[in-house]
Specification:
The chain is an alpha/beta fold. The chain has 11 helices and 9 strands. It has a 7-stranded mixed sheet with strand order 4-3-2-5-6-9-7, sandwiched between helices.
Length: about 250
């Protein structure tokens, strides 16, 4: 079968076994995103109370149905998720960020496989140069953990990079949309000192640049760079400027 949709199919049976073990799907409602050739599907179906599959490629929709899953044939970024207890997926790189956010916003536990570089970035901690907007989102809404690295030769066609299996444990909180928007805004200037990053975002504020510069001088005294801010520090700064950035970012 020719490659479509950026797919790299997991072929290593031992890795598939470990993913299923991490997910512990026995008696659960399981959602698999991107079933592909069914290496995980055929294992999950044996243990899950019910297995849902969202698959964009019609060829694999039919295969998942034959295995016994309830299949939604469509784009996982766009379709509504069925009710599930856990998500399991070998995610295509190009949808890693939007699908992760969608899973997090639904407070779903997940065992997900990503390109290793993305996994390292999304699980980075404050102060790490890899710490970014996606890191902040993931740590704000969940407790992430890299479980293991998977070598590239576990896939066909073989990708250019290794992969990593990540566990997401939701914090079950309602997202503060203003905080997330403010954080995304600042991470556009993640290596800048916080005050400079805020001033650089003046075009998104309700005041002119000079006024914003004066407000920054009065309201914060920090030499930290954006990527050094933990969740509490980001929230404290965000709410000092809610009057100028709310509904504007």
């Amino acid at each position: 079968m020719p490659i479509r949709f950026g797919q790299h199919f997991l072929t290593d049976e031992s890795v598939a076994e470990r993913i299923v073990k991490y997910a512990n799907p026995k008696g659960k409602l399981v959602l698999e995103i991107g079933s592909g050739r069914g290496v995980l599907t055929k294992r999950l179906i044996k243990l899950a109370k019910k297995l849902y599959v969202i698959e964009i490629d019609r060829r694999f929709c039919d295969l998942a149905k034959q295995i016994g899953a309830e299949v939604i044939c469509g784009d996982a970024v766009k379709v509504e998720f069925p009710h599930a207890d856990i998500v399991v997926s070998n995610l295509p790189y190009q949808i890693s960020s939007p699908i992760t956010e969608k899973i997090l916003r639904k407070n779903l536990p997940a065992i997900l496989m990503y390109q290793k570089e993305f996994a390292v970035r999304m699980t980075a901690q404050p102060g790490d140069p890899e710490y970014s907007s996606i890191s902040f989102l993931v740590r704000y809404l969940s407790k992430p953990k890299i479980l293991e690295t998977v070598p590239r030769n576990a896939f066909k066609p073989m990708p250019k990079v290794d992969a990593a299996i990540v566990k997401l444990t939701p914090k079950n909180i309602k997202p503060d949309e203003y905080l997330l928007k403010f954080a995304r805004m600042l991470f556009q200037h993640k290596k800048s000192v916080v005050g400079k990053a805020i001033i650089s975002s003046s075009h998104l504020s309700s005041v002119d640049k000079k006024t914003l510069r004066d407000l920054v001088r009065k309201r914060i005294n920090s030499n930290k760079r954006v990527y050094e801010l933990d969740i509490n520090a980001m929230k404290e700064i965000a709410y000092k400027f809610k009057d100028v950035f709310d509904n504007k970012t």
